[in-house]
């Protein structure tokens, strides 16, 4: 009798969670935009991975970090984009059989948070390495030797995040329906909240680190005494670095 009551309670919770239908224009926009991001993100980042693998001269610290970032983006595109597309379609058509969505959610949602960890930590290292190139070129903290050890540590932290969230989500049968972006904000358990709160701040910390390191580099470059003949070259470097920083922040926010 208790099992029957629990089953009906879960079905009722799922029905209530999917009662708000996303508008048709929003659904079409999301599906088209996410599909474009899926194709572009997968193709471009995969091409970067292939190029870095083929070129033997691209074996510096920044190349290892770039390869790790590109691989993270490829996996994120292949897992997160289909998950959001399916959620949008299920919500628009108000499909009640959510077994497929539940399976995708059990894989997609934890992996999305794991990719946030990998993406943020990799960008931190790239920002610090770029800063060291200017502020301490002969005493750089990241070398080819230790970067090969740091990258696996990042993957281990991401794996820990994934496993932790999978275990935390296993206590509630309808948690995947409740965390759908088209539903009301869910009430997470304490176990899940303990990890979601710090992960939610990683984006802000990443932007802060990129911005702070950028201004430190600009301050160093402008305070250095250079010949008048090199002023134009220094200005070009500053402009290129500024544009690159804008691009990094823009892509980071979009992704």
**Kindly, what is the distance between the CA atoms of the first and last residues, rounded to a whole number of angstroms?**
47 Å
Principal-axes geometry comes out as globular
For the record, the count of structural domains works out to 1
The third-level CATH topology is: Rhopdopsin 7-helix transmembrane proteins
The total of beta strands comes to: 0
Radius of gyration: 22 Å
Low-confidence stretches: 1-19, 226-230
Q: What is the H-and-E element order?
A: HHHHHHHHH
| CATH class group | Mainly Alpha
The CATH architecture classification is Up-down Bundle
Structural class: mainly alpha
- The overall pLDDT average reads 75
Helix content: over 70%
Hey, roughly how much beta strand do the residues contain?
under 5%
Distinct helical segment count: 9
What is the makeup of the main sheet?
A: none
CATH H level, superfamily name: Rhodopsin 7-helix transmembrane proteins
Write the layout of secondary structure elements.
Blueprint: H1 2-17, H2 24-54, H3 61-93, H4 99-135, H5 144-169, H6 175-178, H7 190-200, H8 202-223, H9 231-254
Question: Can you tell me about this structure?
Answer:
By secondary structure, this protein is mainly alpha-helical. The chain has one domain (2-254): Rhodopsin 7-helix transmembrane proteins (Rhopdopsin 7-helix transmembrane proteins). Helices cover 80% and strands 0% of the residues. It has nine helices and no strands. It has helices at 2-17, 24-54, 61-93, 99-135, 144-169, 175-178, 190-200, 202-223, 231-254. Helix 4 (99-135) packs antiparallel against helix 5. The longest helix has 37 residues, at 99-135. It is globular. The N and C termini lie far apart (47 Å). The model is unreliable at 1-19 and 226-230 (pLDDT under 50).
């Amino acid at each position: 009798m208790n099992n029957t009551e629990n089953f009906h309670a879960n079905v009722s919770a799922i029905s209530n969670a999917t009662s708000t239908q996303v508008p048709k224009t929003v659904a079409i926009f999301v599906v088209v935009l996410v599909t474009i991001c899926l194709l572009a993100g997968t193709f471009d980042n995969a091409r970067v991975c292939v190029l870095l693998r083929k070129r033997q001269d691209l074996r510096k610290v920044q190349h290892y970090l770039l390869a790790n970032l590109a691989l993270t983006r490829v996996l994120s595109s292949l897992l997160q984009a289909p998950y959001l597309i399916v959620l949008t379609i299920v919500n628009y058509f108000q499909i009640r059989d959510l077994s497929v969505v539940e399976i995708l959610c059990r894989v997609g949602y934890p992996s999305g948070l794991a990719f946030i960890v990998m993406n943020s930590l990799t960008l931190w290292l790239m920002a610090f390495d770029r800063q060291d190139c200017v502020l301490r070129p002969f005493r750089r903290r990241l070398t080819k030797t230790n970067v090969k050890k740091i990258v696996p540590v990042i993957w281990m932290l991401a794996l820990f995040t994934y496993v932790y969230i999978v275990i935390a989500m296993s206590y509630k049968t309808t948690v995947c329906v409740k965390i759908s972006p088209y539903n009301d904000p869910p009430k997470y358990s304490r176990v899940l909240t303990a990890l979601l709160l710090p992960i939610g701040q990683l984006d802000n910390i990443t932007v802060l680190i990129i911005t702070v390191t950028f201004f430190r580099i600009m301050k160093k470059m402008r305070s250095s005494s250079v010949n008048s003949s090199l002023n134009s070259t220094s200005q070009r470097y500053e402009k290129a670095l500024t544009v690159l920083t804008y691009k990094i922040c823009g892509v980071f926010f979009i992704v």
